[in-house]
Amino acid sequence: MVGAGIGGLTCAIELARRGLAVTVVERAERLGGKMRETGPASSPIDSGPTVFTMRWVFDEIFEAAGSRLADHLTLEPMDILARHAWGDGSRLDLYTDVERSAEAIGAFAGPGAASGYRAFCRESAAIFETLRTPYLTAQQTGPIGLARAVGLQRLGALMGIRPFETLWGALGAHFQDSRLRQLFGRYATYCGSSPFAAPATLMLIAHVEREGVWSISGGMQRLAEALEGLAVSIGVRFLFGSHVDEVRVAGGRACGVTLSSGEALDGAGVVVNADAAALTSGLFGEASARATPRRPSSSRSLSAITWSLKARVSGFPLVRHNVFFSPDYAAEFEDIFKKGRPPQSPTIYICAQDRSDGGLTGGKPDDGERVLVLMNAPAHGDRYDLSEEERAACERRATNELARCGLTVAGLEQGVITTPGTFERLFPGTGGALYGPATHGWDAAFRRPGARTRLPGLYLAGGGAHPGAGVPMAAISGRLAAARLIQDLASMRQFHPGATPGGTSTPSATTGATV
Asked: Confidence band (pLDDT; 50, 70, 90) for 497?
C-alpha cells in the first residue's frame, strides 16, 4: 500500500481483516494525506477536510473489523449545517432538519422558496437513493453498466438523476432567488467543480449533509489516527518517512515497490493511494505511468488558498461552518476555470473550530480562536506558485469580502498560508487539485479512474478515484480497491483464502499474499 490517506488506511484494514499481510508506505512522517493539521500540537488547526458526513461508511468499516467507531472517536452532531452570508446584510442558516430549514428559507425569501426547498430535498434524496447501491458503493462502471445495475424497471429513476442538465440550471426550477441558487450551487465545490458546468446529479451532496454532519472531538486528524489504530490492531505494518521511487513490474504485473533507500518490497499487489496524475506523471516509474489514462490539466478540479491561524474575530456571529458569498458567482468560476487565476471577487469559507451551534465552546480565548479561511483557486501549482504580491492581493480580497459581510478577522496575513503550489508539493503531480478531476459534463463520473488499472496487480484508491472526492468517498474507494485486489488474487493459484493480504511482500504457503 502506497500512501496513508483515508483511502489507503481503509484499504489496508479491508485487506488485513481478510487475512492478507499489509505494509503501508508513507513518504510523510505522519498519516492522513489531505487530512492534515497545522499549528502547535497543543492547539492544532484542521487545515484539510473539516466536515464529517456519511458516518455509516465508517461504522461499517469498524464493525467489519470487529470494532466500533464510537469506541475510538467522540462525535458531536451539528444541528446547523452552515451559516451563509451575503454583502447585502442577509444571512441564512441551514439545518439538518428539513422543516426548520424550510421555515428559515421562507422567512429569508418567501413561502415559494420554502416550497421549492422541500421539492429540492425530495429530488436530492431520490437521486442519492437511486445511485447509492449501484454506483456510489459499487465498482466503477459506464452508463450501460449503471443502467443494468439500476434495472429496467427503474430507468425512470435513472433519468431522474438529471445528468444532462447543469446544477445551476436545475436549481432554477426550485429557487427564483439568486442567493439560494448560489447557496445550493456551492455543493458542486464539494467535489472541486463549478455549478455552471457540473451535472445536476450533484444535488445528492445536499442530501448527504442533511443526513448528518458531525464534528470530531480533537479534530479531523483523530479519524485518521483511529483508522491507523484499528489497522495496527489487525496486523498492518506502517513505514513512515519512506518514499516510493518505483512500482516494480515483473511478467507484466505489479510485484512490489522500490523505496528511495534502495530497499525493494515484494508483494502480490500494489495499491496506490494517490491521485492518478501521480502515476501518469511518471512519479512511480515508467511502467506504472501507462497504467491509467493521462488527463489534460484543464480537467483538474479546484485547488485553494487557505489561511490557518488563531485570530481575533468580530462583527459577525460565526458558527462552526460559515460561507460568505461573492457578489458575482459566475465571474468567480470564470476566473478560476477559464482565466486560470484566483477569483477577483471570491466566496470565502471559514471553519471556526472552537465553535459549535451555540457559538464559542469554553469562553473567548485571549489569543484568538482557531480558524481555517479558504478561497477557491485554479490548480496550476505545477506551473507556478503565487508571488508575494499575489498572495497579498488574495489576502486583501478575502479580508474585503468578509468585511462586506460584516466580519473582521484580525491578522489574516500572519496565518499559515497554503497555495496551489504548496498543495502540489504536498501531493505531487496534481498541480494542487484537491479533488482529482473536476466533475464537469454528464459523463465526468464515468471517466473517473476506477480501482483496477491497466497494469495487472496495480490498484488505485483515494478521492481522485471512483466514487469521488471527500472523506467518506475516499474511504469507499479504499474498500473497492481491496475488493478488486482480493477478487484478482482469488483467481490466481498463489492466493489461498484465509491467508494474509497486504501491500508489499512475497506470497508464501503460510501467509498467502502481501500488499
From this structure: very low
Residue found by looking up cell 511482500 in the block: 505
Q: Which of 191, 168, 165, 190 is nearest to 178 (CA)?
A: 168
Q: How far apart are CA 426 and CA 275, in angstroms?
A: 12
**Contacts by residues 132-139 (CB-CB < 8 Å, ≥ 24 positions apart):** 135/445, 135/467, 136/467, 136/473, 136/476, 137/467, 137/476, 138/480, 139/450, 139/451, 139/466, 139/480, 139/483, 139/484
* Best CATH choice for the domain 6-42+50-75+219-296+439-490 from the list 1.20.1300.10, 3.40.50.720, 3.30.70.100, 3.50.50.60: 3.50.50.60
Contact call for residues 394 and 342 (beta carbons, < 8 A): yes
CB 502 within 8 A of CB 267: yes
Q: Where in the chain is the domain with CATH 3.50.50.60?
A: 6-42+50-75+219-296+439-490
Angle between helices 111-131 and 178-185 (to 10 degrees): 20
What is the pLDDT at residue 362? 66
Q: Find all residues with CB under 8 Å of 82, minimum gap 6, and list them.
A: 93, 94, 319, 321, 322, 323
Query: Residue 4: helix, strand or coil by DSSP?
Result: coil
**H/E/C letters for each residue in 146-170?**
HHHHHCHHHHHHHHCCCCCCEHHHH
Which of 505, 439, 451, 484 has its CA nearest to residue 7?
A: 451
Whole-angstrom CA distances from 369 to 35, 399, 409 are 20, 17, 10
For residue range 190-229, list pLDDT tens digits in order. Answer: 999 999 999 999 999 999 999 999 999 999 999 999 999 9
Residues 141-152 pLDDT 10s: 999 999 999 887
| C-alpha dist (Å) from residue 491 to 393, 479, 494 | 57, 19, 9
- pTM (2 d.p.): 0.94
Angle at which helix 221-233 crosses helix 6-17, to 10 degrees, equals 20
Single-letter residue type at 208: V
